[in-house]
Design goal:
heterodimer, A: 456 residues, alpha/beta, TIM Barrel, three-stranded antiparallel beta sheet, 17 helices, 38% helix, 16% strand, disordered C terminus, B: 53 residues, mainly beta, two-stranded antiparallel ribbon
Chain lengths: 456, 53
């Protein structure tokens, strides 16, 4: 017996001329815009072209859809096994910045860089345990580019070891010493360098000042300029909340004026400020994911240049606009212990950057000897929308993918719980942004319009 | 109804999936893989905390 697909996501969204409805099915890979009449007919079961609905997987034979689901799941897991791994290395949790929202602020960092022996142990682990896997390494922190002699020597040795193996290098840095370190980093092939700017100078410097005070904006900008001039890819992150989102357009103006947005080597990401492990001093400025993107949308309407700086994904909406297709169904959005691992200077291995350095969250050691907590690793590797019971009946699970395991554990005590994303609501905003023309008018509207036109 | 997705190809079967998942129950030792739309990576391009915000 035919039924509407359980993976249909249907909702209304605002368009330039009123409203329309989107119908998205991440399992079948189809997306359409419906007018009011079509929407009603779809829900009432009297849609005129049933064959079309069948072809697009909106109307299904449930047993066939279950088979399609299984096939897609197998393909997803098989493809992920071949995915490139991102391996983080944290040489220190020390940092010269005192960001107002740092999630590592309560970590107790040890000074200096790890010994060569530890760096050797890290690379030996990659050579031995991850042989044959596509991978790249990312220096993370703390701040990996601090100016001490031991840090400089450590970075140099790390870069050489990566280059020796042909591994691409990414760096996540606050950017304060980026300009000085570029020459050294470029001894390896740089995948990208991530730096963070939280707005124009006065806003950024209030949020991301040096420890003990002092501005950082100008030096970071110099670093970005220098990197782009040398052809080094920059991934600019902006951590936003109520305080700085209204100033995002001014940061966009700066990036446009400096020519960053014209560079193919420049990309951006928006990060939401939220409490992960520690409470922040001004929780009133924090936003839910939905609040953030609702406000961002309003900012874009007021300041369209933001889109030149950053085009938000709104889940699959941007992808759909750019590619006229949907990405494959996401059975799991957490890369921890699958395509992401994080190693720190203490010799421990963690599932991801959100967990790295957090006491009790390690899944093994690479130094002084290799020891893996296989049960813990398995629980991370098993986590997906099939193993999280709340995801099994969720209609948006194949776009959400169960969310972040670290947040799930932080909020609910177990990685086996979901970190739900407001998929439908974000799609509503994203469709308004990327498809503002909506859908052709209904027959009734068309008749009314025709009548009006004749009158005029 | 306005389609936002390109017409899907319906080429013949190209490849077999060999992975077995116990989460899917029995009888799935090998599944014929239908050729499909390009599998697009849904990951963000973030080097760091992109997956959790």
């Amino acid at each position: 017996m035919l039924a509407l697909s359980r993976y249909n996501i249907i909702s209304r969204f605002e368009t330039g001329k009123g409203s329309s409805y989107f119908l998205v099915n991440p399992l079948s890979g189809h997306a359409d815009i419906l007018n009011e009449e079509e929407h009603q007919k779809l829900l009432n079961g009297n849609f005129p072209d049933q064959q079309l609905l069948l072809e697009k997987g909106y109307l299904v034979e449930p047993a066939q859809e279950q088979a399609r689901f299984r096939e897609a799941y197998l393909r997803f897991t098989e493809d992920r096994d071949k995915d490139e791994l991102q391996i983080f290395f944290v040489p220190t949790y020390a940092c010269n910045f005192g960001c107002t929202y740092c999630y590592q602020s309560e970590y107790q960092p040890e000074p200096g860089w790890p010994t060569r022996e530890k760096i050797d142990a890290f690379f030996s682990y990659l050579d031995r345990e991850l042989a044959g896997k596509k991978k790249y390494v990312t220096l993370f922190g703390g701040e990996p580019l601090l100016p001490s002699k031991s840090a400089e020597a450590g970075v140099e040795y790390f870069v050489e070891e990566a280059a020796k193996r042909g591994l691409e290098l990414a760096v996540v840095t606050n950017g304060f010493y980026l300009k000085e370190r570029l020459g050294l980093l470029m001894k390896a092939k740089i995948r990208e360098i991530q730096v963070t700017l939280d707005g124009p100078a006065e806003i950024h410097d209030r949020r991301r000042a040096l420890k003990g005070g002092g501005p950082t904006f100008d030096r970071i900008v110099e670093g970005v300029d220098a990197a782009l001039e040398l052809g080094v890819p920059i991934n600019l992150r902006v951590v936003v909340d109520r305080e700085n989102l209204p100033h995002l357009h001014r940061l966009a103006d700066i990036a446009i004026a400096r020519g960053w947005t014209r560079s193919a080597k420049f990309k951006t990401q928006i990060g939401r400020n939220y409490e992960l492990y520690t409470c922040q001093q001004a929780p009133g400025k924090l936003q839910t994911r939905l609040e953030l993107y609702q406000e961002l949308y309003q900012e874009i309407l007021k300041h369209p240049q933001i889109m030149e700086f950053h085009r938000p994904a709104f889940h699959v909406a941007k992808f759909l606009f750019d590619h006229q297709e949907l990405p494959g169904p996401v059975f799991d959005s957490c890369p921890g212990c699958k395509t992401e691992w994080a190693f720190d200077y203490s010799g421990k291995i963690y599932p991801c950057t959100a967990m790295v350095g957090k006491q009790g969250e390690d899944v093994g050691t690479y130094y002084p000897k290799v020891e893996l907590k296989n049960d813990a690793i398995s629980s991370w590797q098993d986590r997906d929308v099939l193993s999280i019971s709340a995801c099994k009946s969720c209609p948006v699970a194949l776009i959400c993918g169960g969310g972040c395991a670290a947040i799930a554990k932080s909020k609910q005590g177990t990685i086996g719980s979901p970190d739900c994303r407001p998929v439908r609501e974000l799609l509503e905003i994203g469709m308004s942004l990327y498809f503002p023309e909506g859908t052709p008018e209904t027959e009734t509207e068309k008749t009314n319009d025709d009548t009006r036109n004749q009158c005029c | 109804m306005k389609s936002l997705t390109k017409k899907k190809s319906s080429k013949p079967v190209e490849k077999k999936i060999t992975k077995i998942s116990d989460k899917l129950g029995k009888g799935l030792v090998q599944t014929e893989r239908k050729p499909t739309e390009a599998q697009c990576c849904a990951k963000t391009s973030a080097t760091a905390v992109g997956c959790h915000d």
